[in-house]
Amino acid sequence: MYKIAVIAGTRPEAIKMAPIVKELEKTDGFECHLVATAQHRDMLDQVLELFDIEPFCDLDIMRANQDLTHVTTGVLHGMQKYISFGKPDMILVQGDTTTTYSAALAAFYAKIPVGYVEAGLRTWDRFSPWPEEANRQMTTSLCDIHYPPTQLSCDNLLAEKVSREDICITGNTAIDALNITIKNVANAPSHFDDGKTGILVTAHRRENHGEPIRDICGALLDIADALPDVQIVYPVHFNPNIQGPVRNLLGHRDDIKLIDPVDYTEFVKLMSDCKLILSDSGGVQEEAPSLNKPVLVMRESTERPEGVDSGAVKLVGTDRKLITETALELLNNESAYNAMAAASNPYGDGLASKRIVYRIGKFFDMDMEDPGEFTV
Ligand code: UD1
Ligand code: UDP
């Protein structure tokens, strides 16, 4: 029996790791340890509860307004303890958070093989997004199996001299999670009122703290002023650097509903019910094309150009005027809107977790059926 530790610290890691946990649990020859670093507390628990996943061990590191040093050292110390009593044969990390990098580093120090889910995304600018781009590059250098979601992310790894033999192109597990969750959406509560044009908003990135988040809020006010039938729903991330300005600047408007982060099923329902999404989230860019919803990405650069190339996503940055103009143009131009909504999803086919588990089996010389790599 091989013990595979699946590490999740934040909401997106838990959503994207949940399908892998489920796949490991139903595959003979594996024991799965979900290790929650709890870099996020409430938002992580929300996902684990929804997918009915009980952590094997919980490092419980989150502190209010934590800094990166706290997260890094908390995960390193906690992982060292887990490794000594859990004795995993392999550790899986996902994405680009500080949990991702620190858990991979702890595994490397203990000479335990590491599999990297959603490997190879790059902007090639260490400060955008910060610190995620550096987390990605540093994590790659510590890993043994690399699971890029797309051909482009595979090419990025090859450019960094990762051997093709250590790479398996999987598609993104976000699509696996979406396929599992979409079946339960009918029972989730609605947030948009009938007859309204719904705009769904999320924003949380560190590089958008300060002036950019205030500009984003300004754009939402301008959009709501320009369109009387619009209703904006914004589940506000618990980060105090987001909560403060968003609630101050937008809290007084009836046409802008500020709500706490909702569980994943409820969020999928929000994405299905809205007309347009404005977001700086990575995961939302990957999911929305499957629901035929255009996304305006409020960031200056993206490590996910596939969505831009397919036409499903537009990069608008955080300039108040540009966000407002692009959103209004799209809502007022049916053919431009339909072209974005109809673009196909380049990020996955729902089989990513099967490929990931198969490739772990291959690493341990287990006899398993090869699902083949993901191609668009
Ligand atoms: C982190 C990741 C980011 C990822 C995001 C997903 C890093 C450096 N950043 O950013 O890559 O996109 O998660 O959402 O790893 N908080 C709560 N409850 C929660 C979650 C957060 O109160 O459930 C508050 C706490 O005050 C915490 C703060 O938010 O200190 C910031 O959390 P942190 O994980 O450090 O950063 P995020 O901005 O969430
Ligand atoms: N999400 C959610 N509830 C919310 C907002 C987002 O479940 O209130 C989901 C969303 O569908 C996506 C993920 O959380 O799967 C994105 O997380 P986040 O934006 O925090 O991080 P990122 O993807 O930018 O790293």
Protein architecture, described:
- With 376 residues, this protein is of the alpha/beta class.
- The chain folds into two domains: 2-172 and 348-363, Rossmann fold (3-Layer(aba) Sandwich), CATH 3.40.50.2000; 191-341, Rossmann fold (3-Layer(aba) Sandwich).
- It has helices at 11-25, 42-50, 68-86, 98-109, 132-140, 151-159, 173-182, 211-226, 240-250, 264-273, 282-287, 305-310, 320-332, 334-342, 352-363, and strands at 2-8, 30-36, 57-58, 90-94, 114-117, 145-147, 197-202, 230-235, 256-259, 276-279, 295-297, 313-315.
- The strands form two sheets. Strands 3-2-1-4-5-6 form a six-stranded parallel β-sheet, sandwiched between helices. A six-stranded parallel β-sheet has the order 9-8-7-10-11-12, with helices on both faces.
- Strand 8, helix 9 and strand 9 (256-259) form a beta-alpha-beta unit.
- Helix 1 (11-25) packs across helix 7.
- It is globular.
- The relative contact order is 0.13.
- The mean pLDDT is 97.
- The structure holds uridine-diphosphate-N-acetylglucosamine and uridine-5'-diphosphate (UDP).
- Uridine-5'-diphosphate binds at residues 11-12, 15, 174, 202, 204, 235, 261-262, 264, 267, 281-284, 287.
Topology, please?
Blueprint: E1 2-8, H1 11-25, E2 30-36, H2 42-50, E3 57-58, H3 68-86, E4 90-94, H4 98-109, E5 114-117, H5 132-140, E6 145-147, H6 151-159, H7 173-182, E7 197-202, H8 211-226, E8 230-235, H9 240-250, E9 256-259, H10 264-273, E10 276-279, H11 282-287, E11 295-297, H12 305-310, E12 313-315, H13 320-332, H14 334-342, H15 352-363
Parallel strand pairs: 1-2, 1-4, 2-3, 4-5, 5-6, 7-8, 7-10, 8-9, 10-11, 11-12
Helix pairs in contact: 1-2, 1-7, 1-15, 3-4, 4-5, 8-9, 8-13
